Batch of 2 targets.
Target 1
Amino acid sequence: MNRHILIMRCRDQAGIVARVTQYFYSIGANLDTMDQHNSGKEGDFFLRAEFSFADDKSAEEVQNGFRPLAKTLSAQYHIYDKAEKLRMGVLVSRNDHVLYDILYRWKTGEWNVEIPWIAGNHEDLRYVADMYGIPFLYVKADKNDRSLAETKILEIAKDTDFLVLARYMQILTADFIGKYGRDIINIHHSFLPSFKGANPYRQAYERGVKVIGATAHFVNEDLDEGPIIEQMVERISHRDLEEDLKHKGKNLEKLAMASAIEAYIERRILRYGTRTIVFSD
Amino acid sequence: MNRHILIMRCRDQAGIVARVTQYFYSIGANLDTMDQHNSGKEGDFFLRAEFSFADDKSAEEVQNGFRPLAKTLSAQYHIYDKAEKLRMGVLVSRNDHVLYDILYRWKTGEWNVEIPWIAGNHEDLRYVADMYGIPFLYVKADKNDRSLAETKILEIAKDTDFLVLARYMQILTADFIGKYGRDIINIHHSFLPSFKGANPYRQAYERGVKVIGATAHFVNEDLDEGPIIEQMVERISHRDLEEDLKHKGKNLEKLAMASAIEAYIERRILRYGTRTIVFSD
Amino acid sequence: MNRHILIMRCRDQAGIVARVTQYFYSIGANLDTMDQHNSGKEGDFFLRAEFSFADDKSAEEVQNGFRPLAKTLSAQYHIYDKAEKLRMGVLVSRNDHVLYDILYRWKTGEWNVEIPWIAGNHEDLRYVADMYGIPFLYVKADKNDRSLAETKILEIAKDTDFLVLARYMQILTADFIGKYGRDIINIHHSFLPSFKGANPYRQAYERGVKVIGATAHFVNEDLDEGPIIEQMVERISHRDLEEDLKHKGKNLEKLAMASAIEAYIERRILRYGTRTIVFSD
Amino acid sequence: MNRHILIMRCRDQAGIVARVTQYFYSIGANLDTMDQHNSGKEGDFFLRAEFSFADDKSAEEVQNGFRPLAKTLSAQYHIYDKAEKLRMGVLVSRNDHVLYDILYRWKTGEWNVEIPWIAGNHEDLRYVADMYGIPFLYVKADKNDRSLAETKILEIAKDTDFLVLARYMQILTADFIGKYGRDIINIHHSFLPSFKGANPYRQAYERGVKVIGATAHFVNEDLDEGPIIEQMVERISHRDLEEDLKHKGKNLEKLAMASAIEAYIERRILRYGTRTIVFSD
């Protein structure tokens, strides 16, 4: 059975689900799962469905077949082949924990993803890339002129479907984000919107919070302001000094990032302005 | 707008959602929310939908209108008027926390429910019923002959839609359960299936667990074995003695019971053998 | 046995615990529990101990007896009689959930506290005070001149040990805080420092966070900036609209506030600059 | 500064903490942290302290120096050099996730531990051992005669301080446990005491629980009955089939095992009958 994923968005209106499911029924597709979301007062409607055929229609054929209905609904949509492997570029600096966690999940087949390369603005993690047999590219960072490094990254990122910043400590410029034009997922080591910017664990320690967190989010032009995909939290106490927060936070960062990447790979995330819709797995 | 709730169950088959949503569309109903669940290998399908009409059809009319489709699908179903207020009988013994929590939620209008009476096998909580202006009935427990007490409860329970056991420490007989014939929700003060029966906090303390829990479940003939609706858990440590577990557990019991009752009132729970399907709110 | 609580703070130095415990031993006191905290690089030391005597020394006597040792250590300290009942004034506006929760815990003896009065800038919750037999005082709010209301509150608050703001939606002036001179605990319906000020659930909804929270904190002159005592969090999803956040947040607000008040009553909270030390129960 | 750890256990009695801390003070040791626990009605007392000297006394010297005081208190005790690296043997079968997590924490220096070997009753994970440069020993399992495999493991385990069973699916015999004579930590993929034995995720799915868990515990002669060290839990729903529980449970198993091993390495765990005391980090 050939499995496909439909992602669709339109204005809320009568009969959307009836028409969409009727369409699947009419072409002999089996509806495996379906999730929908109505935004409430804004009047926007979102739908994600997995469906399968006995014959092997390509995603493109199905994409074309759905067009007339989408037009009727004034819907934006895309149909993906579920078996298609996304290509994920990974950017790092010196922190190793998120990278190790990503590579474990890739290596053991937990994720249906390819990692064509890992790039870092330090050489520290080259050995990890080597252990896993993935090309590592050193991209020197220059605070006064980011364009050189970003040009290099854009070059190697051409063949990727999305990028993840696995504790990459450089700020990507609006120019880079625009030119890349695809999704970039970052992990920030705080419970956003608290403690944006540098040293969030120090900020958390100094503010005296009783819970810490980590946030995986899409990168946009405003630092740590992109749509949030996933957040993980853990209780702490006065006994936890800044270094303890860093230590405990590592697990949160790994879990939040892994959850976000998994949702992304499974096409479960829809952007919605400053927010995201993340359908359940 | 008149809002209704459809609960439906049938064997999985092609076109269920298409046909059901098409039906709503055809009668001019607006589909407000819909959740479905496919059990996987067992091949069972469950659906819950909220829909509304501009005109004021009764739940009965809608129930009848849906019959032909249900027959085609060999589906069991029921349609409820969302505005209908369920009548919930409450049984207690001496513990006050779950009762107080239930009454607060009822009193402040958090729940669309009526509480015609509170019955107890002790007089201890009569004062709480009095505070809230609800009739309290003392039902003497007799361990050697439960029939007297149970007959009394059956009598007053005639006009109820379901019962909740808010830390009612008497075991209901199979005879009672059969004769009542409607749903009974119990709160057990452990993370079932661990620590069934008496003194679960003592059992938990003696076993040395690091997390405690509370479980809201449907009552069936096997003690603490009915389908689980909700579970809440909290970390503990070696510092927590049995009395600390009791103290900390109170919050869990209240939250699990409140969550279960809310789901029940909103018709979000479907029984499925030894399990439950609890659709999201 | 007469039980006392020692709270002590000094600069870290050799032999503190040895000298303090030696002192208790020398006067025949039994050390029931002891917790200490070393702040790390700042070099501050905090200690809380519960101890008991067979004879009935007053807290004052013990307080005096401890003085020479405290002087040697240059320590600030206080000794409390554990049986002493604190007097807690409660301020409310229109939201009822935190008030109900506080009154339940007071009424059922969960907390060793007195509630001499409840004051509100609306009449809405007078009926709750009446149910529990506690005097209710209406204190009209005037945005242009807060002094009138605050003078009234100061007057009735004379005989209290601390105040709790149970969703009191008026801002207390620096003048009030200074004149009252004792502790004031507020519950803010967000995960501080995120979403300070008005409408935190709306802010949370608009930012699209995946976890919401509630924060109990000491009130100081900066709005929502006082030392944090307790925070509770819960996962949410895109399905949760602003009103769902409000609904789910109620449980968090109740739990965070109850935990903070309990810690306060048990003398487990020590202020430390912008932070708090909250010893375990 | 040379840092040591004291672990001590005795009957509760007046002046324990005073005498122990006085002793440290008298020998010029700085008390860095101290935790104590009083079991309550059983009358047992437990203490863990970290202390340091300017001069480099060996753990043995300090161990001897403490003897007279321990004798007075009728205390069992041990003093460890905090810098000492424990040697941890790792047993695996086919599941890779716990092994990967352990190796990551070892490799990146998160844990002060040596891993002299990994042994498996399958060859599947040899490649992981190879990636990390650790010897892998294949130990064939024979269900009818466990003695051969266990003799081999005992032989290589001679130089280890403790063993961890990283999803090792063979049952160790009482004979092995007795002969090894040191601690063995297992991870069981359920919230014990629920779902002992085989296929806990299937059991959990069939029972319809709403929360799943993982438990790290000491191994004793009764299967899945040893003292619990750590438990991690996560909410699930009816949407989660058995394979989803397995997938979600992996994170819990890794976190529970990592937390238990970290506590073990830091000498924070004291066995107490069927329970454990795990002092905070």
Target 2
Amino acid sequence: MAEDENRAIPEETNKEAPKCQTLHESMELLTKHIEQALKELDLNSVSEMLDEILGAKSIFVMGTGRSGLVGKAFATRLMHLGLRVYVVGESTTPALRSGDVVVAISGSGETLSIVDLGRVVKKIRASLIVVTSQPDSTLGRMADKTVRIFGRAKNGKGDYLVQHLLGKYAKLSELAPLGTTFEITTLVFLDAAIAELMVRMGKDSKALEDMHDKLQ
Amino acid sequence: MAEDENRAIPEETNKEAPKCQTLHESMELLTKHIEQALKELDLNSVSEMLDEILGAKSIFVMGTGRSGLVGKAFATRLMHLGLRVYVVGESTTPALRSGDVVVAISGSGETLSIVDLGRVVKKIRASLIVVTSQPDSTLGRMADKTVRIFGRAKNGKGDYLVQHLLGKYAKLSELAPLGTTFEITTLVFLDAAIAELMVRMGKDSKALEDMHDKLQ
Amino acid sequence: MAEDENRAIPEETNKEAPKCQTLHESMELLTKHIEQALKELDLNSVSEMLDEILGAKSIFVMGTGRSGLVGKAFATRLMHLGLRVYVVGESTTPALRSGDVVVAISGSGETLSIVDLGRVVKKIRASLIVVTSQPDSTLGRMADKTVRIFGRAKNGKGDYLVQHLLGKYAKLSELAPLGTTFEITTLVFLDAAIAELMVRMGKDSKALEDMHDKLQ
Amino acid sequence: MAEDENRAIPEETNKEAPKCQTLHESMELLTKHIEQALKELDLNSVSEMLDEILGAKSIFVMGTGRSGLVGKAFATRLMHLGLRVYVVGESTTPALRSGDVVVAISGSGETLSIVDLGRVVKKIRASLIVVTSQPDSTLGRMADKTVRIFGRAKNGKGDYLVQHLLGKYAKLSELAPLGTTFEITTLVFLDAAIAELMVRMGKDSKALEDMHDKLQ
């Protein structure tokens, strides 16, 4: 680690206390976490998720808080791919129907409103894919498919892998508070899934650019 | 890389064509990019940004599209820290005043509406911090402070570092289309900045949890 | 009605079939509905609602779909008044606490996610005010205070007053489909409540203008 | 008016100062304003707006603040009608193209970001419809079509009609501060336009209900 720090901190500030040391440690932890969590991804479940998305009439994405923001970022790219995609709660999101696929993002798998909407999804007989750190959660158990992201959920469950990998950090929850590792890893995973979908759909970067919102 | 792949792909699927190969390559590229871009961060400019945030009466965050989502994720954590923070465009965002700090997120630094609002910020004599891949852009040049994120902006500028580091990928823009590397790196950077702010403010993870929205 | 039509439709088009006749009828119905529903308002319950809002530490507004949009429009004005107000689901909304007041807007009083969040509100021992056409609904029954708006909820309940008043319109639900009358009447009521709060707080229009978001 | 007040205020409170008198006056003003402003609508321009909407490949709605919320409420209903509609700034809004129609809502017609986006709309050669109180504004002048709503814009322009009609209210801006009359009247007008579109498209209330978002 000493070596890394030498690289990151400019020499002229090296004699005093290093600037932004916690920022530096947090970035190291987050990067390692992403790297490890992505290696642990079950590619079979990922591949099935992508098949479902490609076979869906419409795709609906849902999540609350920062997980909801990650979901919106994914939905934006699915739209760039030319897929019919909606974010639950936005103004022009239509009725969900059988044949549609819902991607729910919840680290703990216990987010109240998402669990409730999950029940509605099942009742409508749409397909429910859950991206979560807790496949055994209420939401995980009602899913048609789950993709497990090794991240610490807000409630602290799921820490064991993180602790094991990154044991040297005594202050894990201070370097990546609440659901941070889950949210970041999920964003990276979903963006990589977009790259995979581009290949499967024969789309290039230019095709996505053409779909990009011009009113910004 | 062969070694990595062996770890990531379960043995029973190893004999056929590897599953989700593009996903795998994209995750590798994104992880390396985050790692490298964070090492390239100018910690002096980061430290000044954090000083401004801590000294602000109110903090306003703005961005469009996926950069706007990253901004919202940052704003959520600033609120968890107990800071007075608003997202430009949300329903209860009040008038900006002198003494406030605006954090604008734009990979290209040329996003039309953000550039225009940047002008209003300067007129009101609030402080403008720009997180961008292009400090020489219109937005970068009007900023009081810039933090440079080495990411490819949507318009393809800024590729050189990425190309240099990750040269083996012929299809860079297919593995991380449009502003993906900027958006992801910025999210990780801003989350690490939250960890740094926690230390500076003497807050622990429990304090953030107490502020977390309960109506989800 | 013939008289009204003569006034509204310019003479030169009067000889042909009148332009936008349904628009015209719908506007007449909506205007009459607003007028009548506002007369039916129970001012005691309104006054108690305003007392609660003025006594709250923070005010939280929640609703889904178009009721949620009406709630956001109300929240914007409460912010203009200088009150501490948040919209449930926005990025910087903090934890609800005892001593806070939640204003829930739901025509039917049965909106799944709002009913669920209502239970959380009660558990936290914050005050729950429900603006609804159905005070006997699940949400209405759990409220600390309700304000009844005579509007047709999406499920068609509550029609009786509307039918009685506006009986001549055979096609009521075609002139104001789904929750339209509830949503419009609630917006007008809440905007009038803002005028009342201005007087009680000694604020004038200029004070509100000063708080108005400048980054638009 | 005395008669109205007797009806609205319960007898037991009648002896003291009337409850919520400003609320009552504001509701009366708002109702009269809606009624009058709708009578003043130019049905030819409305009819042309509806023709454009029905002929559009896709419809985009834009506005900021409370005008933006009114736009979202309109967009929700256009979606219920089965039209292809997007709200500018939402996550899954695609690129605007020639052949599309943009409905911009701005009381003053001078809202900075909407004016800027209006220029982009013209450059893309999409059709720009502006709903405004100020057809002579920057936005109004660049529009392909305008629909004039007699409401007071935030900047106070356009008051003359309101003052003329409702002259007895000395405190007009206190009973309906900022853009209130514009926003409310526009919502009622656009909801009446939905009723007109239902007839033109042969849709009934049931068809709209079927499209209504079930995940709430």
